[in-house]
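Quick one: examine this chain and its backbone structure tokens and tell me how the chain folds. Here goes:
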Amino acid sequence: EHPLLFVETREHEGRQAPAYYLAARWLLGTEGCARILPADALPGVYRFDARWWSEARRVHGRGDPPLITLWRGEQDHKIPCPRCDGRLHLEPAVVGRDGWAPALHAMPLGPQCALRAHLVLDAARLPLPVDDPGRLELEEGIEDRVPAEQVWRLADRVPEPDDHLHER
């Protein structure tokens, strides 16, 4: 049996912490299920590619997540890395279509960029408008241009089971 919604409870620091799992077929309206997400992309919501994520973690290690760079519509296949002097190779058509795409970091590699997978997100799909006072802070946090302790993350405030590996 494959339920549309699965909830389990786990012990976390001496108390119960729920974990919720939603079936993609319910969210996307496949296999006869009613669609609960709109067909058009939501601001700040990007399609998750589990196959790419798993491969990136296999190749680059499970410790640090891939580094993210914001794409601002450049049609060049190379954009500057915001963390070092290197350049990222990407497919602009894929970023424009899907809202994100894997990227390959060229030399030189800064210390923060070495041994990490990279991806590019379409900045136009972020939830805050460009002129919003919090937009710069959002972009700096996404691109890891500020220390992790300065970034407000919901995942840091929700108890997670130890086996989910959401720590930074």
